Amino acid sequence: MSLKNDAFPASAAFDAIAGVLSNDTEKKDAIKKGGAIFCFTLKNAAGQTDSWFIDLKTTGAVGKGEAPEGKKADITLSLSEENFGKLVEGKANAQKLFMGGALKIKGDMMKATRAEVVLKKAQAKKAKL
After folding, report:
1. In a domain, 68, yes or no
2. Please, what is the angle between helix 12-21 and helix 115-124, to 10°?
3. Cβ-count burial 3-35 (b if 16+ within 10 Å, e if not)
4. What are the residue ranges of helices labelled H in the chain?
5. Residue 2, in any domain of the structure
6. Nearest to 60 by CA among 32, 96, 41, 81
């Protein structure tokens, strides 16, 4: 089942991330480095919002919604779909987006920096957006 939402072209990156995390070695490494459930809430040019989660706390699961069923996200990152695409492609820096107000973070700020671990794995897989 694809996680891509056609109204959010950059959401194809979640399929790439899920693909990377389907490898047990990559999944264990990401969980060890991530240690949290990340929620990404994206807003597209039409003003619509949608959310996806990456569980780097226990299962390595990637899915739609704010968190796996029965769980709560440790960190919620809210940003435009366009900036998310740039972040995944390595064309934007999360710290600069945050400082410029283009990225909003709810939850543990230190853990939020760990999201980069899995985004870099998606870059390595060359997520085409």
Report:
1. yes
2. 90
3. bbbeebebbbbbbbbbebbeeeebbebbbeebe
4. 12-21, 24-34, 81-89, 94-99, 109-112, 115-124
5. no
6. 32
**CATH number reported for the structural domain that contains residue 111 in this entry:** 3.30.1050.10
- Is 54 inside any structural domain? yes
- Put simply, whether the predicted model's pTM sits higher than 0.85 gets the answer yes
Q: Can you give the pLDDT of all 129 residues of the chain as single tens digits? A: 789 999 999 999 999 899 999 999 999 999 999 999 999 999 999 999 999 999 999 999 999 999 999 999 999 999 999 999 999 888 998 899 999 999 999 999 889 888 887 787 777 665 444
Please give the tally of structural domains in the chain.
Answer: 1
How many of the other CB atoms lie within 10 Å of CB of 76? 20
Tell me whether residue 28 is in a domain: yes
Which residues lie closer than 8 Å to 8 by C-beta, 6 or more apart? Answer: 42, 44, 48, 50, 81
The boundaries of the domain holding residue 51 are 9-122
